[in-house]
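Dear colleagues,

For the upcoming journal club I promised to circulate an example of a predicted protein-ligand complex. I picked one with manganese (II) ion because it came up in last month's discussion. The inputs are reproduced below in full, followed by the predicted structure.
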Amino acid sequence: MKVNFLGHAAFLLEDKGVGLVFDPFLTGNPQATAKPQDLKVDYILVSHAHHDHLGDAVDIARRNGATIVSTAEVAGLCAKQGAQTAAMHIGGRNPFAFGTVRIVQAFHGAGVEGGHACGFIVNFFGHSVYFAGDTGIFGDMELFGRLEPLELALLPIGGNYTMGIDDAVLAAEMLKPKAIIPMHYNTWPVIQANPEEFRQKIQARQAVEVRILAPGQSTEF
Ligand code: NI
Ligand code: MN
């Protein structure tokens, strides 16, 4: 599987001709290295409706005939704008052509009335990936790695709106992934964080690989 960091919290997974993007905020994203029209994807997973996560999801879905997978409230918002959607909610785990999507809780605003922010545990052709979305730390992260042993965790480290570095280090101890890619930092001054500090602090406590990607970079798992 190829993991492409598109900047901020946007990641594109690619394998076997299938593309899945998390939170494709490209237009107006200071870190974005791709344009919505560049993305060839089949699935778009949206953690919540804040602009830096919902982003270009509807536009990309309509261009590609891709399916937006999200909580019912966010999916409803996207369906009204003409996107094909799969509405799920926290606790649900559904099969898709590439594997499975489980929606898990995140502690954050939903950006849509009556909704809830979420994270995802995706099994993408056998690779287990936790995308935390925007969230503070919470103890139930300890359950996630037991529900589905994690190969990769995508964790926010920028603070202010989400976990900062020290909390993300503790979160990683609960999640026990094999590898981590930090996200949601340095997009704006208010979420300034040094990913090397995150790597050093986490590797002082546990054996986990931290891959730091610059926007536009990709890596293989
Ligand atoms: Ni948010
Ligand atoms: Mn955010």
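Two points we might discuss: The pocket of manganese (II) ion (ligand 2) is lined by residues 50, 52-53, 134, 161, 184 (CB under 6 Å). The first strand starts at residue 2 and ends at 7.

See you all on Thursday,
B. R.
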